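User: Some background: our group keeps a shared notebook of sequences we're curious about, and every so often someone picks one and asks for a predicted structure to add to the entry. Today it's my turn. The entry only has the sequence so far, pasted here. Could you supply the structure so I can complete it?
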Amino acid sequence: MVTRTGSGIALTVATVFGNAPAVADDNLFFSELPVVASVSRLPQRQVDAPTAVTVIDRETIKAAGVRALNDVFRLVPGFQTFPHNTDPARVTYHGITDEDFSPRVQVLVDGRSLHSPLFRSGVNWALMPVALEDIERIEVVRGSNTTSYGTNAFLGVINIVTVDPALVRGVSVAANHGSQGVRDYTLRAGAQLGEDGDFRLTYQQLDDNGLENQYDWIDSFRSRLLDLRASWRLGVRDGLELNAGRIEGVLTKGRLDKDFVNAQGELYRSDPGNPIRDFDQSSSWLQLRWLRTLSENSDFSLRYAYSVDEARDDYVDPELPAGFAHVDETGDRGSRNEIEAVHTFAPFAKTRLVWGGSWREDTLRSKTMLYGEGKVVREVSRAFANAEWTPLAWFTGNAGVSTEYDSLAGNNMSSRASGSFHITSQNTFRIGYARGWRTASILDYRANYRSAADEAELTGNRRLPAERLDSWEVGYLGDWKDWNMSLDVRRFQEHIRDRLFQIDPNRRDDLGDSMFPIQDIRIDGVEYQWKWQPLARTRLAVAQSFVSIGSDYTQEVQAQPFGTLTSRDRRRRIDALARDSAPRRASSLLWIQKLPYGLEGSVARYWVDPMKWTRNTEARGYVRTDARLAYPFRAGTQGGEIAWTVQSLNGDHGEFKADGDRADRVVGRRHWVSLRLDF
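Assistant: Of course. Here's the predicted structure to add to the notebook entry:
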């Protein structure tokens, strides 16, 4: 039988302080404000953390009725996403959505970053290297955290912590079958490795027909995942962890030719310049981490990670000359080597400190996008330190600083400071400031994409500055245990300078598009999450965000517009993309109910105002309702669950490209039956 008891929060504390694991509430999302470790990289009470954090546990993931991990972030205030279609899903926080692979929110799985040089230094959500069943909890840092995690943590951090192998025993098999071609299968196993080791192994395959095909596009999605996690106790003070695996995914890309229509008025032939084809992609990884307890209040960890990503969506464009007709814009291969050391200790009474350093090497190879460049190498080294100071029972101070050297982008320094004022044991106010930087991708600096020997489509800009973020926030946390209720409010002002954007700098030359700093952006708003358990069998969670975005062109652009920016219509589109890259208002409601006869029910409802994901399209506002009904059962030592899940219960709507066009991406009703058996 597969058992999944215990709390990852307790395990995090044990890792840092060397204590034995303790059993805690499985439902962290609804429990009293928990301990978090993702903000300062110190385990802290949520009321002591320097910025807002949402903790999502595995029971909440299950109740939300999701198949793809990105969908669960609809529950987090300020976050937006859309389903896989002809474009991989994205997850953004507070907008700024012009990139194909969300690069401004850091995503970690057991400490390993999922940002890839192949995918424009962003995250490919079609290649999530973890099954939903293996997630212990997710800590979502709602605010810049480049001090702790580097440039990709520009607007926030998603830290995914998987289930400890020591808590998994036996074999579990599961299947989903439903509409739109949903056919999912999962096999999990866990056991001891000798006297001092444990392992967890998961194989999962996901298949569906994607969104309903419309006009000139065809959709489908499938993936195959193999994931191994093992751990060993090396005596009283030491531990070793191993993560290894591979995931392969396939999306459908391309368009049908609008000039060829059959008798039924349907398109039937691929567009030769962008044919219907498979977008094959894969990611393989290996991570080793050594942990050593130095004393009751001190520990050290050393981590090495290697990952390689490959992709291919090549085709032959008959209109291009020989030598340039073979096009593979998303291919070829990117790799990352990373070493990180972290030391946590208490240098003085009432003070804790974590400091460390890392080095990584990114490589990228692409015959199309780096024509004639061969393999491009990028090296990044960084050092960081975060301190927590509690001189008084009613005050907690946090401060952090980091410095980073990038062989392509140069030096940048990030900083953060905050103070938490515990007015009472149930009411805390927080004020904080952070400065962060985001550097561009290898392609932004070094691209050389050519459609002919003397004509470029995309050219790198080796003089790109980093985007700079200055963020102020005021927060309130209420934890009313007598009422089984909590409230987390964040009021924020975020100013992004030198927002990078791809434009044509000179439409009269043949150098194509390049990345340039063209805008300063102001993001202003408030968000909150409220949780309440009015009855023992009833739980409610509400999240809302109100976001206003304004932008101005940089002084250089205003003084002398160039290229694309000389067109009033194109400037208007770029302005609209900045302004509408996040919905003015977005809300979510999750209701979890224990029902008679051992049944469990949940309903999630989302209200999202209009927004834009790209400069040439928009998504109208929508309301979406998902529901789940489950029956967990047990017979002796064996158990399982049967469930029915429906997404978009209230019918068709658009979330990505949906503005009334024939080629809209329509999200229709999808439902499936799930069966899990534990042995």
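Suggested note for the entry: The chain has a mean pLDDT of 92. The chain is about 5% helix and 55% strand.
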